[in-house]
C-alpha cells in the first residue's frame, strides 16, 4: 500500500507541475490591472480580457476595454486607485511605473509583471511572446504573430514614393500645447517603417513647436493624432498656426491624422498601422 501511495502521490505532483503555466503565478491570475494600452491589447488577444479588472486610460482597444475601470494615465497613477480594484497582478511597461509606485504595490503584496518594449517589428514579436509566456498563453501568441506577419507583409507591398517624404508629427492639445516628435520616439520609428523620414532632427523625445523650427523643418507631411487635430479645430485651425502656411505641407494641405493608440502602440496591430500610414504619406 505504501508503494502504491508513493506512486499515486508522484503522479499527482507530476500532473500539477505540468498543469502550471510557465509564469510563476501557479495559475492564471483572476484579477489583472494593466497600466499600458499595448499590454492590455495583448492580454485581450490571448484570451484574458475577462481577467482584466482595471486599466490605464490609454487602454481602449479592443473597444470593450473602454468600459473597464480606469486608474489614470500610465505616467501618473496612484497606488490607491489600483489597490481599490484588489488585483493579483499589475502589469505594464517598465517605463510606465515609477519606482515609488513599484515600492507601494510590492509592500501591499501585489505581484508586478513589467516588460521592456522595443519599437520595431522584432520588438513587437518579442513583447507578444514575453507577455503570453508570462501568463501561460504561448500558443495564442503564435496565432497573433502569424496575423501580425501577414499584416506586415501586406504593408511591405505598398509602393513607396521615390523620395522619402519628410513627416512632422505634432502632438497637440489645443494651440496652447503643441509639441513635435524628435528622434528615437515611437512616432519616428513608425514613420520610418512606413517609408518616410522624420522632418526634425537634433533632439530626442518632444520639444515645443515654434514657427521658426517649423519653417526650418519644412515638412512635406504634417501628422497628428485624430484627437490632436480636433483640439485645433480641424484643418482650418491647423492652417492658422504660425509657420504652417510657409511649409510644403501647408502649401499642399498635406495634413493627415491617425488614431493615437494605433499609431504608437507597436502591438498586435503594428502591420495595420504601418499600412495605413504608408498609404497616407505617399
Characterise this structure.
The chain has 282 residues and is α/β, with parallel strands linked by helices. The protein has 2 domains: 24-154, Rossmann fold (3-Layer(aba) Sandwich), CATH 3.40.50; 166-281, Rossmann fold, CATH 3.40.50. Helix content is 44%, strand content 15%. The chain is built from 13 helices and 10 strands. Helix 4 links the parallel strand 3 (89-93) and strand 4 (111-115). Helix 6 (138-156) packs parallel to helix 13 (270-281). The longest helix is centred in the middle third of the chain and has 19 residues, at 138-156. Mean pLDDT is 90; it is low at 1-24.
Descriptive key words:
282 residues, alpha/beta, 6-stranded mixed beta sheet, 13 helices, globular, disordered N terminus
Secondary-structure topology with pairs:
Elements (H helix, E strand, L loop, with lengths): L1 H18 L12 E3 L2 H9 L6 E4 L23 H5 L5 E5 L5 H9 L3 E5 L5 H14 L3 H19 L9 E7 L5 E4 L4 H8 L3 E2 L7 E3 L2 H7 L3 E5 H6 L2 H6 L8 H5 L2 E4 L1 H5 L5 H12 L1
Parallel strand pairs: 1-2, 1-3, 3-4, 5-7, 5-9, 9-10
Antiparallel strand pairs: 5-6, 6-8
Helix pairs in contact: 5-6, 6-13
Q: Total number of helical segments? A: 13
State the shape: globular
Number of strand elements: 10
Radius of gyration: 23 Å
Please report the distance between the alpha carbons of the first and last residues. Answer: 77 Å
- Taken as a percent bin, the fraction of beta residues is 5-15%
CATH topology of the largest domain: Rossmann fold
- SSE run: HEHEHEHEHHEEHEEHEHHHEHH
Amino acid at each position: 500500500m505504501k508503494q502504491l501511495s508513493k506512486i499515486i502521490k508522484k503522479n499527482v505532483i507530476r500532473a500539477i507541475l505540468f498543469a502550471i503555466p510557465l509564469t510563476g503565478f501557479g495559475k492564471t491570475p483572476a484579477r489583472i490591472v494593466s497600466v499600458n494600452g499595448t499590454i492590455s491589447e495583448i492580454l485581450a488577444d490571448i484570451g484574458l480580457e475577462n481577467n482584466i479588472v482595471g486599466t490605464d486610460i490609454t487602454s481602449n482597444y479592443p473597444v470593450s476595454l473602454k468600459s473597464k475601470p480606469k486608474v489614470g494615465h500610465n505616467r501618473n497613477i496612484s497606488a490607491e486607485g489600483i489597490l481599490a480594484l484588489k488585483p493579483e497582478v499589475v502589469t505594464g511597461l517598465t517605463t510606465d511605473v515609477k519606482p515609488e509606485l513599484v515600492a507601494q504595490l510590492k509592500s501591499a503584496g501585489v505581484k508586478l509583471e513589467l516588460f521592456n518594449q522595443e519599437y520595431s517589428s522584432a520588438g513587437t514579436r518579442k513583447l507578444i511572446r514575453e507577455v503570453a509566456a508570462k501568463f501561460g498563453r504561448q500558443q495564442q501568441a503564435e496565432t497573433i504573430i502569424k496575423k501580425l506577419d501577414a499584416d506586415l507583409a501586406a504593408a511591405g507591398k505598398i509602393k513607396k514614393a521615390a523620395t522619402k517624404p519628410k513627416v512632422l508629427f505634432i502632438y497637440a492639445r489645443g494651440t496652447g500645447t503643441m509639441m513635435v516628435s524628435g528622434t528615437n520616439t515611437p512616432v519616428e520609428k513608425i514613420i520610418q517603417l512606413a517609408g518616410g523620414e522624420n522632418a526634425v532632427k537634433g533632439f530626442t523625445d518632444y520639444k515645443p513647436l515654434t514657427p521658426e523650427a517649423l519653417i526650418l523643418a519644412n515638412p512635406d507631411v504634417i501628422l497628428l493624432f485624430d484627437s490632436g487635430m480636433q483640439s485645433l479645430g480641424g484643418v482650418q485651425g491647423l492652417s492658422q498656426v504660425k509657420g504652417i502656411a510657409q511649409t510644403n505641407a501647408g502649401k499642399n494641405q498635406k495634413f493627415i491624422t491617425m488614431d493615437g493608440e494605433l499609431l504608437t502602440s507597436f502591438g498586435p496591430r503594428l502591420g495595420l498601422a504601418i499600412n495605413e500610414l504608408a498609404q497616407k504619406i505617399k
